[in-house]
Amino acid sequence: MSGTCRTPMPAAVQQLVDGLLTALRQALPDNLVGLYLRGSLATGGFVPETSDVDLFAVTERPMTGAEYEALQRVHGEVESWPNPHARRLEIAYVDRQALRHFLPGRRHPTLGQGEKLAWTEHRSNWILERWTLREHGVAIYGPEPRTLIDPISAAAVREAVHARLPDWAVWANAQDETELAAPRASSAYWVETMCRALYTLDCGALCPKATAVQWARVWLPEPWRSTVARSQQWRTDRTPDAAVVQEALRFVKWATRLAMGDASSVPGQLGSET
Question: Which end of the chain has fewer CB atoms < 10 Å from its terminal CB, N or C?
Answer without folding.
Answer: C
